[in-house]
Amino acid sequence: MRSMAGLVDLVLPAACAGCEAERVPLRYGVCAECAAELEDLRPGPTSPTPVPAGLPPCTALGPYDGVLREVLLAYKERGRHGLAVPLGALLADVIASAAGGDPLGVLLIPVPTTARAARARHGDHMGRLARRAADRLRRAGWPTAVARPLRALPKPDSAELDAAGRAAAAESAFRLRAGRAAALRRAAAGRRVVVLDDIVTTGVTLAAVARCLAAIDIPVDGASVIAATRLRYGQ
What we know:
Elements: H1 32-39, E1 44-46, E2 58-63, H2 66-77, H3 84-98, E3 106-110, H4 115-120, H5 125-139, E4 144-146, E5 150-152, H6 163-171, E6 174-176, H7 181-188, E7 192-200, H8 204-214, E8 222-228
Parallel strand pairs: 2-8, 3-4, 3-7, 7-8
Antiparallel strand pairs: 1-2, 5-6
């Protein structure tokens, strides 16, 4: 299930999100050359070193580099929200690959964002990607649902923390929303539970979310991300 194939070419009043070329036909925000680079990516397993306790098996589309990195940055930090369309489709590819390509019942749980980050980015960037990925999977015949059972608490900027600091921040970063446990267990019954994020670096955030869910008897089957930092991709 390739994500970029079949998308309509448009001429948009913005530069290519991958290479910043201007006045060129864009396919949902990227030029033909950058679209081809994204289409060449294939999902694969990835794992940080060391592996944090509770991290589920993780699959990434590719390394956090090149066009993929630039498109993610344009989406998250530069207000290019329309890129949720191709990025959500690419994320659906990752989910399908992790599940072996067989249509299954899937419950997607995106890593929640803090209120501060949502304000800075004009919305919940992972929530948008999860909805787009779910739409793509449903059109491909996969019974798919999205749940948002956790809330993110304020935390320090991870870019300013070392590995130990990130682990400590992640451990106290999430809380289950009141009254959600029973409904979430019903939604997870008979489905593959997959946690979603955009980038995996140390894995502590995904592990923390998985531990929160395990604490209410919801085992996580896997994690799917768009990109993994170069030193961790393919490990």
